[in-house]
Structure formats: structure tokens, C-alpha cells
Write a structure and sequence with these properties.
Helix 1 (30-51) crosses helix 2 (55-63) and helix 1 crosses helix 4 (83-96). The protein is mainly alpha-helical. The longest helix has 22 residues, at 30-51. Helices cover 51% and strands 0% of the residues. The chain is globular, with a radius of gyration of 14 Å.
């Protein structure tokens, strides 16, 4: 596997496109919901550290973001990614108002 030498995150999925899988239909299971909740906690902590926000502001920004909407869609499969990877998209959305 080649290393990513750019500062851009590798786009394993496209957040602005329809995220329907080709062969399977995923439903929100308890395991998927648990993964999303764990990622949300990590992302909120990262927002607090990056921007100096309190927990309420961090959660508001997270839960109202389009990135979180995609994270919460099991058909996108974004919940399989790391919090650091997802945070790159969330940060870009917050700072530019656009989803990459």
C-alpha cells in the first residue's frame, strides 16, 4: 500500500454523494450505534481541544453537522473510519462551511 504524502485525507468515501452500497443494505444495529456513539464522544473531545469550546458547544456543532449526518447513516459506512479521519472532514466543514 502506498503512503499518503499529501495533507489531504484520502477519500475512501465521498461525503457529498449518495452513500448507498452496491451489494448490501446495512441497517442500524446496536453495534453500529455503539460505534457511532464512541466516535461522537471522541469527536466532541477533539472539537473541545481544537477550538477551546465547552462540551455543549462541541456537541451542538457535531450533531448539527452534515459530517455527523453521514456518520449516522449506516449505508455510508463512515462509522468504520477512525475519529482522526472523520475529524478532518468535520473541521473542514466547520471552517469552510462546505463538506469536502
Amino acid at each position: 500500500m502506498l503512503a499518503n504524502t499529501s495533507s489531504e485525507p484520502q477519500k475512501l468515501w465521498r461525503i457529498g454523494q449518495n452513500c448507498k452500497p452496491i451489494k448490501t443494505h446495512r441497517i442500524m444495529t446496536q453495534d453500529i450505534q455503539f460505534q457511532i456513539e464512541c466516535l461522537a464522544a471522541e469527536l466532541a473531545e477533539m472539537l473541545m481541544a481544537e477550538y477551546g469550546w465547552d462540551i455543549h458547544h462541541a456537541l451542538d456543532e457535531l450533531y448539527l453537522s452534515r459530517t455527523f449526518a453521514k456518520l449516522n447513516d449506516p449505508e455510508c459506512g463512515l462509522y468504520y473510519q477512525s475519529a482522526v479521519y472523520i475529524f478532518q472532514f468535520l473541521k473542514s466543514e466547520i471552517e469552510t462551511g462546505k463538506v469536502v
